[in-house]
Design a protein that fits this description.
Order of helices and strands: HEHEEHEHEHEHHHEEEEEEHHEEEEEEE
Number of domains: 2
CATH class of the largest domain: Alpha Beta
Strand content: 15-25%
Helix content: 25-40%
CATH architecture of the largest domain: Alpha-Beta Complex
Largest sheet: 6 strands, mixed
CATH topology of the largest domain: Creatine Amidinohydrolase
Number of strands: 19
Number of helices: 10
Structural class: alpha+beta
């Protein structure tokens, strides 16, 4: 991944001499390493600064930048200013969406350059994944698919939602996940009407829909998927809702491609649920981009005017939530390409009855 070169190539378009990368996802994108460090990128030169806890690992992992360690006498600000002064840098881009006000003021008062909000430079680059990033996300998705297959053999009445969530994490970690993309959601029965329900002490019961939303990180990149399964025979209404959500997802996937605004994808799915009479119960967007973070941009939402780039990775997750009764969500992950998309989620999505 030649991300430092991509960042350097974009500096002129933002009117900056160099970029200061301070966020964790930005750090990994630029340097390929998480070490609570800072990256500096200028044309033809890059610097990665960390501390003694990470210096040995950083020196092994970071190949596209010079790696230095802070000391009690020479901290981060010292190394940043030395870089700025040596290269004659006057304007320095910062990731404004990630900087706290306190951090911004500290940099503004201490650094030998004018700070310029330029976080969009990294965010736009991150929106279109390169082949190595896509491969990492494919590996993460494969772990997630395998965990879903395993959890089907585990689910049974009497388990609590929290127990199922814990088992999902175990199944992903034992298959190579580094960590979770987010805290898993397990919502059973009436809790399924809350899209982001927190797994709790409710015990799964026969006749429940059980919605599981989970994902993991592999090589720094996220996966994400949701499946709703029936624990025992569902009612006709439950089957009708499930069928409507699945039809909506398929319509959105058919519309998903690079070169269209996110609202076009969302509309294709939303129209299906509105026609089925469930439009009022689809309360969120069709999908969001993901990558180093579980929520990135652009989104496949009703308000998204931005055109989706080729290489964007977007969730496809329509849902219907009937308050106090049950909910259904089905989620896959798509790679957007010119003329269509690739669905990298392999788990079955026809209704599973356990």
């Amino acid at each position: 991944m030649e991300h430092i070169q991509k960042i350097a190539a974009g500096l002129e378009g933002y009117g900056i001499d160099a970029m200061l990368v301070t966020s964790q996802p930005g750090e990994f994108y630029a340097a390929g390493f998480y070490g609570e460090g800072i990256a500096l990128v200028a044309p033809g030169e890059a610097l990665y600064i960390t501390d003694s806890r990470y210096i040995e690992a950083a020196q092994r992992a970071v190949t596209a930048a010079t790696v230095v360690s802070v000391t009690p006498d020479q901290g981060y600000l010292h190394h940043i200013n030395a870089f700025l002064d040596r290269l004659g840098i006057h304007t320095l881009g910062v990731e404004e969406d990630y900087l706290s006000l306190a951090a911004y003021r500290r940099y503004e008062s201490a650094l030998h350059a004018d700070l310029v909000p330029a976080g969009r430079l990294l965010l736009d680059l991150r929106a279109a994944k390169d082949p190595e990033e896509l491969a990492a996300m494919g590996r993460a998705q494969a772990v997630t698919d395998a965990a879903f297959s395993a959890i089907l053999d585990f689910l049974r009445p009497g388990l609590t939602e929290a127990e199922v969530a814990a088992r999902l994490q175990y199944e992903m970690l034992r298959r190579g996940a580094e960590r979770m993309s987010f805290d898993p959601i397990v919502a059973s029965g009436p809790n399924g009407s809350m899209p982001h329900a927190v797994p709790g002490a409710r015990k799964l019961q026969r006749g429940d829909f059980v919605t599981m939303d989970f994902g993991c990180k592999v090589d720094g990149y996220c996966s994400d998927m949701t499946r709703t399964v029936a624990l025992g025979e569902p009612t006709e209404e439950m089957e009708a809702v499930y069928a409507a959500v699945l039809a909506a997802q398929r319509a959105g996937i058919a519309a998903a491609r690079a070169g269209v605004p996110g609202k076009t994808i969302d509309a294709a799915a939303r129209q299906v649920l509105e026609a089925a009479g469930y439009g009022l119960y689809f309360s969120h967007s069709f999908g969001h981009s993901l990558g180093l973070e579980i929520h990135e941009g652009p989104n496949a939402s009703a308000r998204e005017e931005r055109v989706m780039p080729a290489g964007a990775v977007v969730s496809a997750e329509p849902g219907v939530y009937l308050p106090g009764r049950f909910g259904v969500r089905i989620e896959d992950v798509l790679i957007l390409r010119e003329g269509g998309c690739e669905d990298i989620t392999r788990s079955p999505k026809e209704l599973i009855i356990l």
